[in-house]
Design a protein that fits this description.
disordered N terminus; PCuAC_sf; signal; Copper chaperone PCu(A)C; 10 strands; LpqE-like; Immunoglobulin-like; ten-stranded mixed β-sheet; globular; Lxx211020-like; mainly beta
Length: 154
Amino acid sequence: MVMKWCVVLLTGLLSFTAFAAELNVDADDLWLRQSIPGQSNGAGFGIITNNGSQDVLLIGGTIAIAEDVEIHRHVREGEQMRMEAMDALTIPAGQSLELQPGGYHLMLMALSEPLAVGDQHELTLVFSDGATLKVKIPVKELVQRQESSHHRNH
């Protein structure tokens, strides 16, 4: 009986590995923006690359510190910008898509704790075919500081 369960478990793990390998998606330089005081939601950015031969649809994600992870985009209406939730985000075959402030991004809804600089969280991206991709994602400063060279003496 134990041997039967081992075979069933091993078969399941092998089929999951094959399924995950078919996804062929990478997530690079993903990061979460530190929480804005008084805000209950957070945002995530980075680059998702589809190395496969077919388009994939990112439909959201999961993370332990938020009730949900949604895909959002900024939309201009006249002179105003607003965010809107999306059902899915297409990542074209053989291409990369950047999630960035003012564009497509991940929204972490109803955070259970603030996102603090230096913390790291495990995020699971979820695709329309049920495939998932787990990534470790750091929290970075709200405004990325850039080193300035104009203070040097010449």
